[in-house]
Write a structure and sequence with these properties.
With 200 residues, the protein is an alpha/beta fold. It has one domain: Vaccinia Virus protein VP39 (Rossmann fold), CATH 3.40.50. The protein contains nine helices and seven strands, in the order ααβαβαααβαβαβαββ.
Amino acid sequence: MKVVRTQLTIDEIIRAAVLIDGWMSDDELRWLAEQTSRRSHVIEVGSWKGRSTTALALATPGRIYAVDHWQGSATERDSWHREAAESGADALFHAFCKNVASLIGDGRLVPIRLPSATAADALREILSPRGADMVFIDGGHTYEEVKADIEAYKALCGQGALLCGHDFHSPNHPVARAVTDCLGPSITLGPGSLWSICLP
């Protein structure tokens, strides 16, 4: 039986997303939802409990592939990342699945519980030959992790795809340095700490 998706307004999407723990601001979520509303083959790298995932999946006319290992970051041990160490990846993955259960159920969201590099290899097969038309990177935040994710997922993008991410703070921040080194000065910044570039 075909599932009929209810079309939500951007404001309704934001209200649903902010109910979930996470770091994304309303303005950042709005931008993601607006961009995704025009794209059908979307990858999110770093999904945590599903705040940004919800904004992406509720807005898209297609499907979101949510990539995460749900172990938190070894280099970031604030209260949320400590939760991964203390409760374990299984607990966080189950929390994510509970938060986005209806989106998984209607087929617009596919969780991929793998390290990002391994997931990129799997997605290459799934999305071949068209590629992704949007990739949102918000996984690891060290220079090396961001650089590796950009290189791996840029290779999965189709013509005219939007490559974007989170946590572009000051120019010396590791995320900002990796983005600039990989993509040059032609990136667009904002809102918030988002960065983006449309690929040729």
